[in-house]
Amino acid sequence: QGTRDHPPSHVVLRDRLLAAVVACFKRHGAAAIDTPVLELRETLMGKYGEDTKLIYELQDQGGELLALRYDLTVPFARYLAMNKITNIKRYHIAKVYRRDNPAMTRGRYREFYQCDFDIAGQFDPMLPDAECVKITHEILSDLQLGDFLIKVNDRRILNGVFAVCGIPDSKFIPTCSSMDKLDKIPWEEVRSEMVGEKGLSPEAADRIGEYVQLHGGLDLIERLLQDPKLSQNKLAKEGLGDMKLLLEYLSLFGITGKISFDLSLARGLDYYTGVIFEAVLLQQNDHVEEPISVGSVAGGGRYDGLVGMFDPKGRKVPCVGVSIGIERIFSILEQRVKASGEKVRTTETQVLVVTPHKHLLGARLKLISELWDAGIKAEMLYKKDPKLLKQLQYCEDTGIPLAAIVGEQELTDGVVKLRDVAKREEVRM
Amino acid sequence: QGTRDHPPSHVVLRDRLLAAVVACFKRHGAAAIDTPVLELRETLMGKYGEDTKLIYELQDQGGELLALRYDLTVPFARYLAMNKITNIKRYHIAKVYRRDNPAMTRGRYREFYQCDFDIAGQFDPMLPDAECVKITHEILSDLQLGDFLIKVNDRRILNGVFAVCGIPDSKFIPTCSSMDKLDKIPWEEVRSEMVGEKGLSPEAADRIGEYVQLHGGLDLIERLLQDPKLSQNKLAKEGLGDMKLLLEYLSLFGITGKISFDLSLARGLDYYTGVIFEAVLLQQNDHVEEPISVGSVAGGGRYDGLVGMFDPKGRKVPCVGVSIGIERIFSILEQRVKASGEKVRTTETQVLVVTPHKHLLGARLKLISELWDAGIKAEMLYKKDPKLLKQLQYCEDTGIPLAAIVGEQELTDGVVKLRDVAKREEVRM
Predict the structure, then answer these.
(1) How far apart are the CA of A385 and the nearest CA of chain B, in angstroms?
(2) Are residues A390 and A260 both part of a single domain?
(3) CATH number for the domain that contains residue A170
(4) Least CA distance to B364: which residue of chain A?
(5) How many domains would you assign to chain A?
(6) pLDDT of res. A178
(7) N or C: which end of chain A has fewer CB within 10 A?
(8) What is the mean pLDDT of residues B148-155?
(9) Is the residue at A1 inside a domain?
(10) Which one of A347, A351, A359, A400 would you mutate to disrupt binding with B, by most B Cβ within 10 Å of its Cβ?
(11) Which residue in B has a C-alpha nearest to residue A90's C-alpha?
């Protein structure tokens, strides 16, 4: 349940998608690492808040207690701490496992790919952060997924906002998780969840409401820096200063047109400590003025405390990264391919080796072996004496563009007849 | 235990290796499929004989009882049966899991890659089988691993040999597993294991001994076809006939020089029903005449009954395939790279964007963004005002061949200075 077999047509499309993502990661100088699917159970515990219950555990068959990785970020932090690496730019594309309620039509599975790019190390503020946002922008542009928006925020700004609204620290994460829904449901419903389920006072919720509905650019940052309450909060001020720097860098990258500083962005994970961001695809809708969001396809942020949790001396390695939501993007591309009627070839065979009559198996085997040894992608039918028509039909069915035909006459003349299957033209060579 | 993190230097080398393997699989017209790491526990039970105890089981957290796949062959057969596919040529490269005693120095892990190519379908005899052997030959040649030998045999021939030696069917698999050791230990020791542990009579063991020490080519097949006892056995005769056909096809492929029909080859797995083969690397040894084997690097065979085990009506789909022992090959290549002193680059960055003095961060961000958007692999240091020397040193350390330098003068002139890091030559452009 919640997993699936991928037939060749899937794999071809997925490989195409992953190749574009990897090309971008390499363009930014990242190296690839790989870690096991199996992690010690204790490595994963206490890293995912409430979602810890979604971790797949292995049976105790003797030896270490194991679990399947839940994401690639915690294994990355464990890897850095174990190997005392303080400086790396890496990508990792691999499957992760979650005992979630699958919603396969929306691209949510129990086994799915993550594509992560992270920069670890102590650097000047916001330079790696800006690159992660740039990468998100490049990938979504390269894949031509249509219009998109990258929302950015900072956990420190949220912390400051919550503090000045009189919300205790203990309610930070629960309140964030309510806020995360502002994407899908209107503020009134989010507000009543905050008051009803999360136990905020109606006044505090209203105060929050004034902030979290704000979004904009540098102008909004300037306004908030003038805010009499917020400007008194140390964390918020730090966050706003860095946010200003980030937007300046993104402006030099020429991508601010698709960036929105959005105070409602919270993101679920515990471990973020600074900048957070999330990319959503937009869809023009005839009935309303503004384009509507059709869901998040990438996200990331800064997590400066995670590596320290795995270091015996608690040494910190600041990190920032982005994860591309390949499964949702795959669903979109798949629908698009279906709609376009494009016939996706699942093999790359260039030529079928064909004999036009009986008793020529030996000639076929000799020729195909020559082709393979010359690096040419070639197939033949696994029949001693196949009919000519059947062989040509196989080309048409599987999209093989050429047939290399060798009969008695060709053998005598020391040539082959090369047939362009679509044009039905032949040359002797 | 038994798993490992792969640092960038590993991944680069492994990707190089896998690219060669995939290129060969695609050259032979194979499509890729992917199946989940998780399988239903019942799917894996009863397929691996004694080794079933090495399967990793997941904890019962509610829902289906799951296990981690042990190889790619059983999931492939399950995939064919579930999707009623009767005809496919596919490859699958993925990790499998075994609760084995790890022997990491010899490349034996609990999590490791398998690279499988299989042909499923009802075809004329030995054509797909010959292609699998050809693929093995191509990959080992392409990877330049040194001299190798591909041993071939047939389960039906072994069956016949055992029958005429008076060994009951029930002892077929245990006797095969003793025979498998003939590679490493002399016949006398294998014989005493057969008699002592496996309960064969000394006479039966001696009769087997006469057969299993035979190896050769077409001549040996002819001799065995004349063997008064063996030629009376139906299975052996079938197997010998097909073996003759196989060697004829391999001769047309021009590869019989590295093929040995070897009656001692048994292979461990239960599910083989026909041809089996195994490739071993050979090492010239000064002290002995014959080259010695340094271990198996690929193997495969025909399994015509496996798919039927997953079909509710027991419909059979004949299959033959090969699995490339990528982990052992990786160990060999890794040692070779180490010995050669080759410095493997872990990133592909073409150019570092460099500023020679302060207050030029903006120029650097603008230029690098232009390069990225033009598809050029570019990096910069994540510092506002890095020293020129530090930047050039980074190029030397990481093997970046070019530095694009932009200072006040270059900005004024609208050019960049492109520096060849190794030659220390610069051009303005």
Answers:
(1) 9
(2) no
(3) 3.30.930.10
(4) A252
(5) 2
(6) 84
(7) C
(8) 97
(9) no
(10) A347
(11) B8
Q: Are residues A263 and A408 in the same domain?
A: no
Give the distance from residue A382's alpha carbon to the nearest chain B alpha carbon, in angstroms.
6
* CB pair distance less than 8 Å for A33 and B5: yes
Instruction: Tell me whether residue B97 is annotated as binding.
Output: no
At residue B154, what is the residue type? D
What confidence score (pLDDT) does residue A179 get?
A: 84
Shared domain for B384 and B331, answered yes or no, is no
Nearest chain B Cα distance for residue A348, angstroms? 6
Q: Give the phi and the psi of residue A275 in degrees, each rounded to 5.
A: -55, 140
Torsion, Cα B142 B343 A117 B358, to 10 degrees, reads -150
Q: Which helix (H) or strand (E) holds A12?
A: helix A8-27
Contacts of B365 in chain A (CB under 8 A): 130, 249, 252-253
Please indicate, yes or no, whether residues A19 and A99 belong to a single structural domain of this protein.
yes
| DSSP 8-state class, residue B325 | -
Q: Which of A305, A340, A375 is the last residue of a domain?
A: A340
Q: In a 3-state reduction of DSSP, which class is residue A226?
A: helix
Cα gap A290→A324, rounded to integer Å: 25
Per residue in A181-190, pLDDT tens? 887 788 899 9
From chain A, pick out residues whose CB is under 8 angstroms from the CB of B8: 31-33, 90
Looking at the fold, whether A311 and A384 belong to one and the same domain comes out as no
One domain for residues A310 and A366: no
What pLDDT score does A107 carry?
65
Token pair of A49, please?
Answer: 């808040």
Residue B64 · residue A1 · CB < 8 Å? yes
Where does the pLDDT of residue B288 fall: very low under 50, low under 70, confident under 90, or very high at 90 and above? low
CA distances A227 to A164, A215, A223, A262, B184, Å, are: 11, 15, 6, 16, 79
Cβ contact A345:A400 at 8 Å: no
Is residue B41, in this structure, part of any structural domain at all?
yes
Helices (H) and strands (E) counted in chain B, each on its own, are: 14, 16
A83–B7: do the CB atoms touch at under 8 Å? Answer: yes
Of the candidates A31, A99, A347, which has its C-beta nearest B347's C-beta? A31
pLDDT tens digits for range B170-193: 888 888 878 878 877 888 999 999
For residue A371, give its domain range.
Answer: 351-428
Residues of chain B with C-beta less than 8 angstroms from the C-beta of A347: 26, 29-31, 89
Which residues in chain B have Cβ-Cβ distances shorter than 8 Å to A30? 347
Dihedral (CA of B99, B104, B109, B111) sign: positive
One domain, residues A288 and A407: no
The whole-number pLDDT of residue B293 equals: 60
Q: What CATH number is associated with residue A402?
A: 3.40.50.800
Of A29, A56, A89, the CB nearest to B377: A29
Q: Which residue has the tokens 């990264």?
A: A321
Sign for the CA dihedral angle at B107, B111, B115, B121 comes to positive
Residue B26 with chain A: CB contacts under 8 Å: 347-348, 377
Question: Of the residues B290, B313, B340, which one is the last residue of a structural domain?
Answer: B340
Using alpha carbons, list the distances in angstroms from residue A393 to A135, A362, A400, A402.
45, 22, 10, 12
Diameter over CA atoms, chain B: 95
Chosen from B1, B58, B100 to mutate, greatest number of chain A CBs within 10 A: B58
The total of other beta-carbon atoms located within 10 Å of residue B30's CB is 27
Same domain, B139 and B277: yes
Determine, for residues B124 and A382 on separate chains, whether the beta-carbon distance falls below 8 Å.
yes
Residue B346 belongs to a domain: no
Which site among A116, A369, A380, A398 would you substitute to test the B interface, given the most B Cβ atoms closer than 10 Å to its Cβ?
A369
* Partner-chain contact A27 B253, CB within 8 Å: no
**pLDDT value of position A48:** 84
Put simply, the answer to whether A64 touches B95 (Cβ < 8 Å) is: no
A3 inside domain: no
